[in-house]
Amino acid sequence: MTTSITLPASGHTKRKHRASDADPDVPRKKKKEKLKQDTGKPRRGTKPSTSEFRVTKASMTLSVPPVFASNLRAGAEEMLDSMIMRYIPSLCGVLLAHSNLHFLSPTASINADCPFAVCNVTFDATVWSPSMAMKLVGKIILYSPDHVSLLLHRTFNVSIPRHHIPQDVWEFEYGPAENDPEYGEGAVGSSADNEGDVGMKEGDGEKAEGKAVQEASGQWVHRLTGTKLGGTDGYLEFTVIGKTVANEMLSLQGSIQPDPFSEEHFATQSGKSSRKKSAE
């Protein structure tokens, strides 16, 4: 058994006819020529959008809970709000915002004993959807011998594996060991005792601790100049070579190789994995 519920008006208004449309004296030929000019082909110089952000017209079927039976529009908007910052397979990206919600049918259906109102909606979706081979810039947050971690737009995670870092240009420089008496915990404790009455600001301790952790983990440096990967500001440009979806979150895999999609890099990765399995 299927029950129908009347949905609120979508806000569309009928287009008013112009006086010229009803006027028989206006020649039809000119009207056709005008329409023909408006629906011309795109220019040859135009290029497709290469941005990682896009706005698209999306349609979706929603099951609105019965608590919103008196206001299905509010229920539909709340369900779309719950999808924000999540990877939506139908959109091929992460939903960032939505607007201009409209119902495709004047009624919603309730099937059998299910109290949820099923309705088809359309809306404008702002989506983060980076494509393969796209060049992006992220902030380095972690140096590791196996990979480099970046944060894109302070939100999305990016990982650059070791085999996608040019080994002839960059090398990993290990920091001081944790049990080193000059740089370890003993040195921090002794320096604090020797200071005695010397005051320290609250922020200084946190900065020193963060700096020690970063040095202890090591960093990727240039073989000739010794400069740190990412420079002083820590921003690094990379090429998108892979995507991973886990727990409705999208993360990227990047490369800074001059030829990121070469089979040589993927062969190096498969060789390392096979050696690990044989060792086990």
UniProtKB/TrEMBL annotation:
Alphabetical GO biological process terms: DNA-templated transcription initiation; transcription elongation by RNA polymerase I
UniProt region (Disordered), positions on chain: 1-53, 181-217, 256-280
Sequence ranges assigned to domain RPA43 OB in this UniProt record: 130-256
InterPro entries tied to this protein: RNA_pol_Rpb7-like_N_sf (IPR036898), RNAP_I_Rpa43_N (IPR041901), RPA43_OB (IPR041178), Rpb7-like (IPR045113)
Annotated Pfam families: RPA43_OB
Record field: compositional bias (Basic and acidic residues): 198-212
Locations listed in the record: Nucleus
Annotated signal peptide: none
Keywords annotated in UniProt: DNA-directed RNA polymerase, Nucleus, Transcription
Presence of keyword Nucleus: yes
Listed Gene3D superfamilies: 2.40.50.1060, RNA polymerase Rpb7-like, N-terminal domain (3.30.1490.120)
A GO CC term attached to the entry: RNA polymerase I complex
PANTHER family: DNA-DIRECTED RNA POLYMERASE I SUBUNIT RPA43, DNA-DIRECTED RNA POLYMERASE II, III
Protein name as catalogued: RPA43 OB domain-containing protein
Species of origin: Suillus luteus UH-Slu-Lm8-n1
